[in-house]
UniProtKB/TrEMBL annotation:
Its main location: other. Signal peptide: none annotated. It is found in: Peroxisome. One of its GO terms (biological process) is coenzyme A catabolic process. It comes from Origma solitaria. This is Peroxisomal coenzyme A diphosphatase NUDT7. Its EC number is 3.6.1.77. Keywords: Hydrolase, Magnesium, Manganese, Metal-binding, Peroxisome, RNA-binding. The keyword Mitochondrion does not apply. Belongs to the Nudix hydrolase family. PCD1 subfamily.
Length: 245
């Protein structure tokens, strides 16, 4: 499995809740299948943890000091560096830099189908389990807040809207937008764009339930439909790149 030697065992109480998730995620592991595509690379960590017997996702809020997307919700992550061995290394390094999550405290499970951000970075989501006792120490230069959301919220949200978006290459896609009222921080967070895209796909993979909103996947063939969607998006960008040469 992806990063199999780079994980630490979770405490026993979490095993029951996580076992099905592990199995389903490993079925959709893309490994380094898309690593040779000629786009700048980036990776994000999708940190799963168990609280109250339910799976949760850890998310961050980007610092207002950042030039790109200040104040937006995202996963820990960023651009790959020359010293990174692969996307897993990138995601773990960035999570350590941004929220103080030590790489050995992450049980890496898989890499899912990548996405392409608005500046045409190829972004690979790396899924891993972390302990529910993890206390984030946000780097204030990059992260202003850290919070968790029940994973099932991304298939059964209380506050959701969607809109169509045409990329600069002319590809039409669906944008998910969630508003989550966090009881711990006592405020609302807006989760949208590529972050919401990854969260929705992760929830679909693990729960295998039809969401309360429309998605651009064949739910009976998640692997092939997610890869086809990605390849169509990539093709539209790459054709535009070639036409600009």
């Amino acid at each position: 499995t992806a990063g199999g030697s780079r994980c630490s065992a979770l405490p026993a109480p979490s095993q029951g809740v996580t076992e099905n998730a592990r199995r389903r995620l490993r079925e959709l592991d893309v490994g380094d299948k898309f690593s040779r595509l000629p786009l700048p690379r980036a990776a994000v960590l999708l940190p799963l943890l168990v609280r109250g017997g339910r799976l949760h996702l850890l998310l961050t809020v980007r610092s207002m000091q950042l030039r790109r997307s200040p104040g937006e919700v995202c996963f820990p992550g960023g651009k790959s560096e020359a010293t990174d061995k692969d996307d897993i290394d990138t995601a773990l390094r960035e999570a350590k830099e941004e929220v103080g999550l030590q790489p050995e405290k992450v049980e890496v499970i898989c890499r899912l189908t990548p996405g392409i951000d608005k500046i045409n970075n190829l972004v690979t989501p790396v899924v891993g389990f972390i302990e529910d006792t993890f206390q984030a120490t946000p780097n204030p230069d990059e992260v202003s807040e850290v919070f968790v959301v029940p994973l099932e919220y991304f298939i059964k949200p209380l506050n959701y809207k969607t809109f169509s978006y045409k990329t600069s290459s002319g590809y039409l896609t669906r944008i998910h937008c969630f508003k989550y009222d966090d009881p711990e921080h006592k405020r609302s967070f807006k989760i949208w764009g590529l972050t919401a895209h990854f969260a929705v796909f992760l929830a679909l993979v693990i729960f295998r339930e039809r969401p309360t909103f429309e998605v651009d996947y064949d739910l009976d063939n998640l692997i092939s439909s997610s890869e086809n969607n990605f390849l169509n998006l990539y093709a539209s960008i790459y054709e535009r790149k070639k036409s600009n040469l």
